[in-house]
Amino acid sequence: MKIITNFSPNFSKKKREKNEIKFVIIHYTGMQSEIESIKRLKNPKFKVSCHYIINRKGIIVQMVKEKNIAWHAGKSKWQAFKNLNNQSIGIELVNKGHQFGYQNFSVKQIKSLITLCKNLKKKYSIKKENFLGHSDIAPLRKIDPGEKFPWKKLSTNNLGRWYRFNKKIIIKNKKKIRNIFFRNLQKLGYRYFKIHKSSIYDKKVIRSFQQHFLPNNVTGIVDQKTYEISHFLTHKF
């Protein structure tokens, strides 16, 4: 695996131990070009960075050393963790994103990502379910890497969760479906909602889940299939 370096000054002074790294968070750059993305990730004014950026040709560039805390996750929650910069490695994929013309991720890009993630998984003993998207840990603020990101393909390489249908689960009471769905999400690690109380933010959390696990049906509504996927995810693991 060939990696070139182009280091950013944007990272915390405090170094971390190897066993503190528990997650890999995947992002897209969401800017009009690779050059602009790297400029931003190196500019002290913006206070953002990542450990790695992978371009459309599959070239991997390291921007922050793994022992250092890069500023990629921001305000975030997953399971009992908050502000996941401290516990994670951040990987940016060059993609214009939803604002500038969201693209399919290139074959070479995903191939390099899988190779890098396998390496990180082994090096830090990262659990396969701890490969997440930015929108998973910050659903109220972020939508990357988005519905075009191939989570199912990653899961075939033991990177990230996936599900398998085995029978239809029928619950007719819509309120009950909603509450059980959010209970399932809580088990998975999602936060920013209350199980028994609806909120204006619920739709963003649902959309985040659908972008990850049901990318052809990102509605923000807990329909039968969305509910069933949450069931099979929580009952499989």
Features:
237 residues, alpha/beta, Lysozyme-like, 2 domains, two-stranded antiparallel ribbon, 8 helices, 34% helix, globular
| Biggest sheet: strand arrangement | 1-5-4-9-3-10
Give helix % range: 25-40%
Structural class assignment: alpha/beta
Distance between the termini: 31 Å
Shape: globular
Output the CATH topology of the largest domain.
Lysozyme-like
- Overall mean pLDDT stands at 96
Which radius of gyration do the C-alpha atoms yield? 18 Å
Describe the structure.
The chain has 237 residues and is an alpha/beta fold. The protein is globular. Strand 7 and strand 8 form a beta hairpin. Helix content is 34%, strand content 15%. It is built from eight helices and ten strands. It has two domains: 3-155, Peptidoglycan recognition protein-like (Lysozyme-like, 3-Layer(aba) Sandwich), CATH 3.40.80; 174-236. The strands form three sheets. It has a six-stranded mixed beta sheet with strand order 1-5-4-9-3-10. It has a two-stranded antiparallel ribbon with strand order 2-6. It has a two-stranded antiparallel ribbon with strand order 7-8.
